[in-house]
């Protein structure tokens, strides 16, 4: 997080009054781009902002916020390893976020700030993991709508690696088919171990392709069942990447459904690992403790609240909004806390999180 801001000003972040409020949400990866290229892009953005401000506001109001913006841009940290930035500025306050999420460029000039604009500006990444299994080998891909990238791991990709790893009593067993089944099970366990490691680096939906026999063995042994969104049955051992992509199309065509299903699976997994907070009050507490890795919240969910005896607690608003501890929408504040501490935020349709009181937070620990 960037510039300092007085605690009471934090409440102004959502509503800035009838003055120019500028929100800049931009890709910003200094470790991947030359500094002078980034500075040139920022200069162009500021030029667009200046033109729009001078059309919509008086010169004195426009220049007041422009001065703040220019200072903020000059103060940017070019040593960051983050992927994007969000800059909020008005004549009376300023704030910078360095984010771990990819975003689409967005410039918003209005009479108020909306922290949810950060989430809505996220670049939609149609990515998933694909395991192509056969009784002899496994291929792993990082896929999207148009192409695959082969992922090479240190784990064996061929069942032959386990030929000499069979117990002596089984190796000497007279039934060859029984020996093949045991080797296949051992191979599938190693594939599943590799998938567990891979999901830590790529927490994405998973699809598995293979014959009914092979996928049956994998399904029986996997510890990642709650991350697998579909099994595609068929003999794909010799299929080209183009053929695999064509076979995947029916399963990823409705990406919104795929994404929503995967998010629910992640919440189930976090529940099993005792790493989930649900309901506004518990989510607020854990987000305040900087434990939030992934916030999932229903669209249009708002929660007027009042501050508890300490900053880690809130209560539903049951008295006048003029109360000095009034919080217009605690959901926006939680979004801010999670993003500011390196977490991610996803919205789902209304009713999807009924079992979680409309909001849930996956914890780092």
Secondary-structure blueprint:
Layout lengths: L20 E7 L7 H22 L2 H16 L9 E6 L4 E6 L6 E5 L5 H5 L7 E6 L4 E6 L4 E4 L16 H4 L4 H26 L4 E5 L1 H10 L6 E6 L7 H12 L2 H18 L3 E3 L1 H9 L3 E7 L6 E3 L6 E3 L9 E2 L2 H11 L3 E5 L10 E5 L2
Parallel strand pairs: 5-8, 8-9, 11-15
Antiparallel strand pairs: 1-2, 1-4, 2-3, 5-6, 6-7, 10-16, 11-16, 12-13, 12-14
Helix pairs in contact: 1-2, 5-6, 9-10
Short synopsis of the structure:
It is built from 10 helices and 16 strands. With 365 residues, the chain is of the alpha+beta class.
| Number of strand elements | 16
How would you classify the helix and strand content by structural class? alpha+beta
Average pLDDT reading: 87
Largest sheet: 5 strands, mixed
Assign an overall shape: globular
Helix and strand pattern: EHHEEEHEEEHHEHEHHEHEEEEHEE
Sheet-strand content, in percent, reads 15-25%
Distance between the termini: 21 Å
What is the helix fraction of residues, given as a range?
Answer: 25-40%
Provide the gyration radius in Å.
Answer: 25 Å
Number of helices: 10
Strand arrangement within the widest β-sheet reads: 7-6-5-8-9
* Uncertain segments: 1-17
Describe the structure.
The structure is a single chain. By secondary structure, this protein is an alpha+beta fold. Helices cover 36% and strands 22% of the residues. The protein is built from 10 helices and 16 strands. The strands form 4 sheets. A 5-stranded mixed beta sheet has the order 7-6-5-8-9. It has a 4-stranded antiparallel beta sheet with strand order 3-2-1-4, covered by helices on one side. A 4-stranded mixed beta sheet has the order 10-16-11-15, with helices on both faces. The radius of gyration is 25 Å and the shape is globular.
């Amino acid at each position: 997080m960037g510039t300092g801001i007085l605690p009471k000003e934090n409440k102004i972040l959502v509503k800035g009054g009838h003055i120019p409020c500028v929100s800049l949400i931009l890709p910003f990866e200094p470790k991947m781009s030359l500094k002078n290229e980034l500075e040139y892009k920022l200069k162009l953005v500021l030029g667009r902002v200046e033109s729009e401000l001078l059309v919509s506001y008086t010169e004195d109001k426009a220049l007041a916020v422009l001065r703040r913006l220019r200072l903020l841009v000059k103060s940017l940290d070019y040593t960051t390893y983050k992927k994007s930035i969000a800059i909020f500025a008005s004549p009376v306050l300023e704030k910078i976020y360095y984010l771990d999420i990819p975003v689409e460029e967005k410039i918003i000039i209005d009479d108020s700030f909306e922290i949810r604009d950060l989430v809505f500006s996220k670049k939609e990444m149609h990515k998933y993991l694909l395991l192509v299994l056969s009784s002899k080998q496994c291929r792993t891909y990082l896929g999207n709508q148009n192409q695959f990238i082969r992922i090479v791991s240190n784990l064996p990709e061929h069942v032959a690696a386990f030929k000499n790893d069979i117990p002596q009593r089984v190796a000497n067993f007279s039934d060859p088919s029984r020996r093949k089944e045991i080797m296949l099970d051992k191979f599938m366990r190693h594939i599943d171990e590799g998938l567990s490691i891979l999901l830590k680096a790529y927490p994405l939906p998973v699809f598995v392709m293979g014959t009914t026999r092979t996928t049956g063995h994998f399904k029986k042994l996997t510890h990642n069942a709650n991350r697998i969104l579909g099994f595609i049955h068929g003999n794909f051992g010799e299929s080209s990447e183009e053929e695999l992509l064509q076979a995947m199309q029916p399963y990823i065509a409705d990406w919104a459904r795929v994404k929503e299903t995967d998010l629910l699976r992640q919440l189930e997994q976090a529940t099993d690992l005792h790493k989930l907070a649900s309901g506004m009050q518990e989510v607020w507490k854990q987000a305040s403790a900087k434990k939030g890795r992934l916030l999932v919240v229903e669209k249009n969910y708002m929660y007027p609240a009042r501050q508890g005896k300490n900053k880690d607690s809130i209560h539903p608003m049951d008295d006048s909004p003029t109360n000095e501890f009034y919080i217009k929408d605690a959901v926006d504040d939680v979004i801010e806390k999670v993003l500011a501490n390196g977490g991610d935020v996803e919205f789902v349709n209304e009713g999807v999180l009924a079992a979680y009181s409309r909001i849930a937070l996956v914890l780092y620990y």
